[in-house]
Each structure stands twice: as structure tokens, then as C-alpha cells.
Specification:
The chain has 393 residues and is an alpha/beta fold. It has helices at 18-29, 42-53, 80-87, 100-105, 144-147, 149-156, 159-179, 191-201, 241-251, 264-270, 283-292, 306-313, 326-329, 344-357, 365-372, 377-392, and strands at residues 6-10, 12-13, 34-36, 39-40, 67-68, 75-77, 115-120, 135-139, 185-188, 206-207, 229-232, 255-258, 275-279, 296-298, 318-321, 336-339. The chain starts with 5 loop residues before the first strand and ends with a helix.
Length: 393
């Protein structure tokens, strides 16, 4: 049987994160698939190529934004927006977002592919207008800043930012609703995202949790758990590191914050001697922290959340709010505990109570690590391949 011709559409390759890791696994699932993204930076391109190469022999080289990457079957196609992104310094991509939907609607997909798989945050589903082939959307989240007013206000940072994001949000909602009826199938990365797809798009979704590179994170029983809790991740408002800091202060504990971002300066003003900021750090430092902390704190609501799974792969329990992607990953009494979701005061008090009474000896690190194994890339590739094959008919 002839292998299907698959196109993969992502919104941008300007940095490497969880959604780019998903695309890397897409490429391993469908070798030779063409990859399209309106905005591609050199760093973003090279990070994707390295991630794909890590799962097979040979590392493809960079020959421009539209290339067949060193015989590895990866062709990455961008647009004029890549050059515009470089011209404005290669930093923030937000000024280019209004041009992304039109660019996606003009992708050269017609009559070239049997199925198109899009990796969607806000605009990728616009590719549905560029082809008559079945389009299957893997949704990291419907544009949360577009649909959720509270989230938008939290992220915008001041009145001018709120106005700009409100306008862009209206634009994104219209784009998503226009594309949704034409999708052949929707796959959500968590049950919380599936609920958003149902409520905002009016569509059902199959849940396939994203892959987590747990091979990089393993337990070490010879390393004892120490007397500190860990927050790891980008220091941006919605991650709610501020709640972790306040909860540890309330409980009289110690906290290590691993990560960096625009919210760090504010966080340092509310933290005291109980909190240590390590900044951004390589994997070996993160691994060491996962192995030594009493537990990882997850006070923010994530669409999925990679950090809890990485921590559990190292045998570390996770204390998380009972909302969002944590409902897919944390098992109370086995791999961690939930804090009842509520306002900031309730979350801080609930997490402080867990911290005060927390006893890591109640949890089996080996069982926690085995649970994390269910999110391994091999499991993801098997599930996504099966779901797409059935949806594409």
C-alpha cells in the first residue's frame, strides 16, 4: 500500500517548546512529510531538525527555509513573514500575527497531499482553506487569550496591551470559528482543551496527550529527597509562580524557582529568604532538582503541562490545582495531590496546607515514574498515527 502524502502545518518555528516537540514527533510518525510554517527563524529551524534527528541517525543541516534537510526527508517551507521577523530583530512575533491567517490560507497544499495535519494554537486551522484534502487539527489550545477574558487581562500587562490583545482576540475567534466546520477531525492535547473545543468551537475532540521526553529524566534512588519544594517553568503570569511563593511563605517552607521570564522581577519583589531563584538552567540542573525536591508545585492552570510529567519521571510527586492538564497527569494519592481550584487566596491556603503536612515517604517513586512512562513519545506516535489514519479514512 502506498504511504499517504502528509503535510504538517505549524504556526511558527521561532523557539522550541512543547508544541514544537509535538511536530517533531509528527515528523517521526510520518517520515518525509512536508512541514509548513509562516514564520521560521534559523534557531527555530535548527531546534526542530535537532529534535527529529535525536530519534534517528544523522542530523540534517540548514540550507534555507525551504529545503530537503540533508536527505532526512524533512522539507520545511516558510513565507515572507520569516524575512519580516528577521528584519524586526527576530524577537517578538506578535506584530506579525495579523498576517498569519492569510498566509496560511495561501499555502501550496492543493492536490499535493492526501491528508493535512495542523498543529494549532491560534491560526493554523486556516490551512483548511488551502486544500480539499482532509484536515485534522491537533489542538494545543484554542486561542486561550482570545476566548478567555480573564486570561487575556492577566497576560496583556496594562491597558494598551489589553486593547491590542482584545482586538487580536476578536480576529482570532472569527478565524477559528470560520475554519472549525471544515475540519475533518479535532484532536485535543488534554481533556481540558477538549472541553474548550466543545464550548468554543462546538465540536467533539479525541484526546491524545502530547509526548514528553521522559528518557532525559529518570529517578535515582541513591539521592535523598531534601527539604525544599520546586517550581519549574517560564516565569510568565499565567504559570502563577507567585502563588507558589506565597504558599511556601504561608507554610514556612523553602522554595527553589527554576526558570526565567518577564515576570521574574515582580516575583523577586514578593519573595523572601525562603525562595531561591536559579534562573534558566540546562537539563542536568533540572534533573538534579527533580531528583532532590520534596515535590513540584503547579499552581497555574495549564492546557497540558510538561513539567509535572518530567518531575514524575524522576519519581517526584506533584502538587497541582485540580484544573486544566493536571487532571490528565496527576493521580491523587499515587503521584501527587490536588489543590481545589478557586480564587488566589483559596489556592494559596490549600497549597500551604499540603506543603505543611507533606510526607514524601507516602509515595512510591518507582510507581510515579512508571505512570510518567505512559506519556512517552513512542506511546504518542502510536496513538496519533492510529487516530489520524481512522479520521482520514
Amino acid at each position: 500500500m502506498t504511504a499517504p502524502r502528509v503535510a504538517l502545518v505549524h504556526e511558527r518555528f521561532t523557539e522550541y517548546g512543547g508544541s514544537e516537540a509535538v511536530v517533531a514527533e509528527f515528523i517521526k510518525t510520518w517520515p518525509g512529510a512536508a512541514v509548513f510554517a509562516p514564520i521560521v527563524s534559523r534557531e527555530g529551524h535548527d531546534s526542530l531538525v535537532a529534535a527529529v534527528a535525536s530519534g534517528r541517525r544523522g542530523a540534517p543541516a540548514h540550507d534555507g527555509a525551504a529545503d530537503d534537510a540533508a536527505g532526512q526527508g524533512i522539507s520545511i517551507h516558510d513565507s515572507w513573514l520569516s524575512r519580516a521577523h528577521a528584519a524586526i530583530g527576530g524577537g517578538a512575533h506578535a506584530p506579525l500575527l495579523p498576517f498569519v491567517p492569510r498566509t496560511l490560507r495561501r499555502l501550496p497544499l492543493a492536490e499535493r497531499f492526501d491528508v493535512v495535519v495542523v498543529s494549532h494554537h491560534a491560526f493554523a486551522t486556516q490551512a483548511v482553506f488551502a486544500t480539499d484534502a482532509p484536515v485534522i487539527a491537533y489542538v494545543h489550545s484554542p486561542a486561550r487569550w482570545a476566548w478567555d477574558g480573564a486570561f487575556r487581562a492577566q497576560e496583556a500587562g496594562g491597558k494598551p496591551g489589553q486593547l491590542a490583545l482584545a482586538g487580536l482576540g476578536h480576529f482570532a475567534r472569527r478565524a477559528e470559528l470560520r475554519a472549525a466546520p471544515r475540519l475533518a477531525h479535532v484532536i485535543a492535547n488534554s481533556h481540558a482543551v477538549a472541553d474548550g473545543v466543545r464550548d468554543w468551537w462546538g465540536l467533539p475532540a479525541t484526546v491524545v496527550n502530547p509526548p514528553v521526553r521522559i528518557d532525559r529524566f529518570t529517578p535515582d534512588p541513591s539521592i535523598p529527597r531534601e527539604d525544599f519544594f520546586l517550581f519549574a517553568g517560564r516565569l510568565v503570569p499565567y504559570k502563577r509562580a507567585d502563588l507558589a511563593i506565597r504558599a511556601v511563605q504561608r507554610a514556612g517552607g523553602r522554595l527553589v524557582v527554576l526558570g526565567d521570564g518577564r515576570h521574574r522581577q515582580y516575583l523577586e519583589t514578593i519573595a523572601g529568604s525562603e525562595t531561591t531563584f536559579l534562573g534558566a538552567a540546562p537539563d542536568h540542573v533540572l534533573l538534579d532538582m527533580y531528583r532532590r525536591c520534596r515535590a513540584v508545585l503547579m499552581p497555574g492552570v495549564e492546557d497540558f503541562g510538561i513539567v509535572p510529567v518530567e518531575a514524575m519521571a524522576c519519581g517526584a510527586p506533584v502538587l497541582a490545582v485540580a484544573a486544566g492538564g493536571a487532571l490528565d497527569t496527576v493521580r491523587p494519592g499515587r503521584t501527587g495531590e490536588y489543590v481545589e481550584f478557586g480564587d488566589d487566596t483559596a489556592v494559596v491556603e490549600g497549597m500551604a496546607c499540603l506543603i505543611r503536612d507533606f510526607d514524601p515517604s507516602r509515595y512510591d517513586p518507582a510507581a510515579i515514574s512508571r505512570h510518567a512512562g505512559t506519556f512517552a513519545p513512542t506511546a504518542f506516535r502510536a496513538r496519533i498515527g492510529d487516530v489520524v489514519a481512522r479520521a482520514a479514512g
